[in-house]
Structures are given as structure tokens and as C-alpha cells.
Amino acid sequence: MSSTTKSASTFKVGGDIEINRVGYGGMQLTGKGVWGDAPDRDTAKKVLQAAVAAGVNFIDTADSYGPHTNEVLIADALYPYPKNLLIATKGGFERTGPNKWIVNGDPKHIKEAIEGSLKRLKLDVIDLWQLHRFDSKFPIAETLGPVVDAVQAGKIRYVGLSEVDVKQIESAEKVIPIVSVQNLYNLGNRQWENVLDYTVQRGMAFIPWYPLASGPDKLKSKITSIAEKHQATTAQIALAWLAKRASNILLIPGTSSLEHLNENLAAANIELSDEDFAALSQ
């Protein structure tokens, strides 16, 4: 495992939309079990507004968050949007209750998801639309059919995938260009190492979800000592490690707290040494 010595602060999605690598994930601005609207909607709107005011220009959401409430909240808080703000959303899940997620790759559902996201987010074009999961009940070419149509109609600019292996990325690329992959990845869970390396080679963005996990117990002493050296929190070190791991990693830590938002954004200022990175990576 290698890293760049100096972490770049920006990344170009699709090779042309430049964004700051520390963004914001909207999932936590929902009710318990990612079901229903944010319990404190006024504070949730302030968190989104504060994030953008602090320089965040990449926000990740999904039609399944709420469902639908998260996209509506983002529009209510931020519309009309700043010109440089990239809002990425996702489709391909059905929700039947708190913590219940049902994969649905039916082309009809995907088309409805895209049209619904455009309406709720008040967008003419979704800059980055991501497929939540492959659905074994449908060939990927069928699932992505409405996505191809939406791209050709100018309703979607770029397309990404979530929780996929390399073979799945390659099969999707036979249908449509893929610019990003969003997989579970953090300091303590690196099961998708080969997928990350593949995205590096291909110039795709890699968006780790659950980025704040700081690793197993055996890492705690190392993380604590490195955090103390940088006068940082363990969560900030976990984010700084991801930023140094690869220059195509986009961070989307989510929070419903203004205090935690500022803490997460400050992680962009932490530059781990090669020695720190190596110690954490063992």
C-alpha cells in the first residue's frame, strides 16, 4: 500500500468538475434508521448551509434517504445552488421501513428514481447519479437503460456505482462510462482495496462510505498517539489517512451537528507524514 507524499486538496470528477475532496454526506440528516425527515429540520438546514459556506462543494445524497426527505431538505436549504456545487444522488433501493433496504434494479423503478430526484432537488441536470447496487434479477444493461437515456437527454452528466467489485464495474462500463465508485472503505475495513486501486488506475473518483470508522482495537494506541501529535481527534486522523491513501478519494463524512461538521472539515488541514501513514496502515 502506497500513498502520495502530499495530498491534493481537489479532484476533477469526470475529468472536468473540480471539487474539494472533503465533502458532505447527507444520510445523517434523516430520522432513526434513515427513515423520515431530520428530527430538527432547522438545525439540519443550518448544517448544510454552514458546510457550503465553509467551502464544501460536493454533497452526497440518495432518493432512499428518508426516503425522499433528504433530497427535499437539501433543496430547501441550498436552492438556488451556488454554481460550483456538485450534488450527487443515488437510486436503486426501495424502502419499506427504518433500516430496511430492498435492491430494485427494475428499469421502471430506476427511471422513476431519476425523475423524482430531479424534481425534489430542483435540478435540470444531475451532475453525478449513482446506482446503489446491482440487482441479480435484472441484467445490468437493462437496469442502466434509463440512465443511458437520461444521459443522452441531458438529465444526468456523469454516472457512478456503489458497492461493486471490479468485474461489475467493467460490465457497467460496457453500457455507459463510469466516473465514480462508492464502496465501504475506511481505516478499519479495507476489503475493497483492489477496487480502490482499480479506480486510481482508471482516474475514477472513489467515495468511501462510513469513512469515520477508525479501525480495530489494536490500532487505538497508534491512532491516539498520532492524534495527540497533530492535536487532532481520532476521527480527524481516520479522515486524514483516507485523504493520504489515494488522491482520488473523496470524503463525505456526515453529521447533524455544527460542531462535528467543523471538526470534520478541519481534517483537510491535517497532513500525515509517511511514517504516520505507514504505522496506521499496518
Automatic annotation (TrEMBL):
Transmembrane segments: none annotated. Keywords: Oxidoreductase. InterPro entries: AKR (IPR020471), Aldo-Keto_reductase (IPR050791), NAD(P)_OxRdtase_dom_sf (IPR036812), NADP_OxRdtase_dom (IPR023210). This is Aldo/keto reductase. One of its GO terms (molecular function) is oxidoreductase activity. Residues 22-280 form the NADP-dependent oxidoreductase domain. One of its GO terms (cellular component) is cytoplasm. It comes from Dyadobacter pollutisoli.
